[in-house]
Amino acid sequence: MDSPDLDRFSSRRSTVYGQRGVVATSQPLAAQAGISVLEDGGNAFDAAVATAAALNVVEPTSTGLGGDVFACYRTADGDVGAMRSCGHAPADATIENVREAVADDQDVAPADAEMPDSGPHAVTVPGTARGWEATVEKFGRRDLSDLLQPAIRYATDGYPVSERVAAQWEHGEALFDDEHARDAYLFDGETPDVGQEVSLPALGETLQRIADEGADVVYEGDIGQAIAEEVQSKGGFLTTEDLADFEPEFLDPVSTTYNGAEVYELPPNNQGFIALEALNIAEELGAGDHPLDSPERAHYLAEATKLAFHDGHRYVTDPEYEDHPPLASKEWAAKRAREVGETCNGDVSFGVPDANAEDADTVLLCVADDEGNVVSYINSRFAGFGSGLVAGDTGIALQNRGSSFSLDSEHPNSIEPGKRPFHTLIPGIAKLGEDDWAAFGVMGGYMQPQGHVQVISNVVDYDQPLQAALDRPRWRYRESGELAVEPHFDSDVAAKLARKDHDVRLQPMDEFGGAQIVRNDGGTLSAATEPRKDGNAQGY
Fold this sequence. Notes:
Layout: E1 16-18, E2 21-25, H1 28-39, H2 44-58, E3 68-74, E4 80-85, H3 95-106, H4 128-139, H5 144-147, H6 149-157, E5 159-160, H7 163-172, H8 179-185, E6 197-198, H9 201-213, H10 216-219, H11 222-233, H12 240-244, E7 249-251, E8 254-258, E9 261-265, H13 272-285, H14 295-315, H15 330-337, E10 363-369, E11 374-380, E12 428-433, E13 436-442, H16 447-462, H17 466-471, E14 475-477, E15 482-485, H18 491-499, E16 503-506, E17 515-521, E18 524-529, E19 536-539
Parallel strand pairs: 15-16
Antiparallel strand pairs: 1-18, 2-10, 2-19, 3-4, 3-11, 4-7, 5-6, 8-9, 9-12, 10-11, 12-13, 13-17, 14-15, 17-18
Helix pairs in contact: 1-2, 2-6, 6-9, 13-14, 13-15, 13-16, 14-18
């Protein structure tokens, strides 16, 4: 028997393996909730919902019932699909109405008003509750009520707050200028300390109501009434009719091939096209033919990503309102690749639809089971505690995804009644070989597609073990035109990139997104998680 090639395993921790299932996410208590569901006979989809619900409680600084949820998956039957449970703008949210409403707060004329970052006009219909319910009804084998129990226990009985969550909580406190928010998420007027045990009783009661009555209580019941009243009391337009009209959708993902792998992402209004276009351009340029640690590889991947961002930010929006060119096609990539040379192309603009999205953060989880199900599941309010509004005494912090809209009628993401905003969230899956499937994702606003590119290249081009593929130092192309690199990025490679005219800047590790990945390779289940957060992968 050949000895293992230990040089391949350069990470500080090993890839996790399991016999019946694996879960990877950003918080150990949430991962344990998912594993407990698998142990009790649930499948990967059941575990995904239980994990997501637990994250709402133990990492409330990044996700919640007031946000949206998305999935990309491959079922045990071999079906590949996606779910988008993404809310829309209120029916009364015209450009003119929003301009008039926010102009006084911004001390400008209505014609000069801009979409606010937070507050009532940044709130769109939350998609989470119906998204969870739809996932379980279509693919699960457990009742939603059962799957919410770990989250309810954490919210009611309490849990200890980790270092990173405590830091994020302190940062989010600035949004809490409303008594409902302060009552729900502060403790004696303060954010929690590291290790402090906290409970979120209002959120626990709401989760129990959903467990007992179903998601309709959030959209057509008194919880929905509380959401609408909260937004309207602050001058917003969201109504109970807007909530009642919402339904999740199951749709076909968009896809491409990259050096033999099939990669699947969410279509617009999500930014999955950006990842696919970047992979196609990188393949056309032969980025993966260069050594793993070479400046040429990083240069061509970054230039491919830059072009994909330019195109995606020009065309990606709600497809019911705008058409888009074939951004994921090989022909499009071949044409765009001709603009890449051996040095940085400084003439390509980032084309930001929303500057606030560049460093937004979220939570991601990935689950695989021994039946062949793999799912990447992502749940977010957009920026931390979102809009800063909490709906009455429900404990539901409402998202600020509407801040991605523009008040410029010529902008592809201009706000319109019923329109869904540009969404950064992109769960991904990949077929790496015959009967070899992975579910993956990288968090952090515009880090997401360029993180996908780097992780896929690490696994496909260099056959890196899952944990090594996530641990590898990352770069990220920024709206400013800078090429940011992590502190432990190879300094020699960084210097050579600078000589290729890249504006290389060292930035903190937490600006490069966490990541998760799970894999079912012919029945061998494995998982890895982010080194940049409190990530935890578990198997059984």
